[in-house]
Amino acid sequence: MTIGLIALAPPLTWEVVYQAYGPQVARWAARLAGPSEDVEDLVHEVFLVVEARLPTFVGTDALPSWLFRITHNVVRRERRKQRIRRWLLGPTPEEVAPADPRPDPLAQVMERQEVARLYQAMEHLKEPARTVLILHELEGLSAAEISGLTGIAPGTIWVQLHRARQRLAKILEETP
Fold first, then answer.
1. Residue-wise pLDDT tens digits, 54-77
2. What is the CATH architecture of 1-99?
């Protein structure tokens, strides 16, 4: 299998997989996790899993979907831990006002609030619909590409996407 200029051939090592797919995994993790998670830590977790499970992996053609499933599971696990942590301890100071090096403070605050509002609204979506919405709207993937990554039938993807958009619009309409 060839990705860009990198030819992936068995035996695969996690380093080769990281070189070929590291940026894509980071993008998936950032989009799936939202602004409150540390993407570097998530990517690190993903590639720890890849390193542990790569010896049992078969079929380099399925590598992107395998990596996506690992990324998705790592992000879901981390989001679940964060929800429990916030429920028990309340928001951290970084979640209340994360640092941003851009110069316009008012624009920073407004942008952060809108992004936080969007991700808070997406918290109310069921996991498959949330994932499909993120992959289609934020990543720009087609139904066929999402199907290849998630194993969900393309027709089901369109239904989930339609319902997720409707639900998200309703949630955003109802929340200030």
1. 888 877 668 898 999 999 999 988
2. Orthogonal Bundle (1.10)
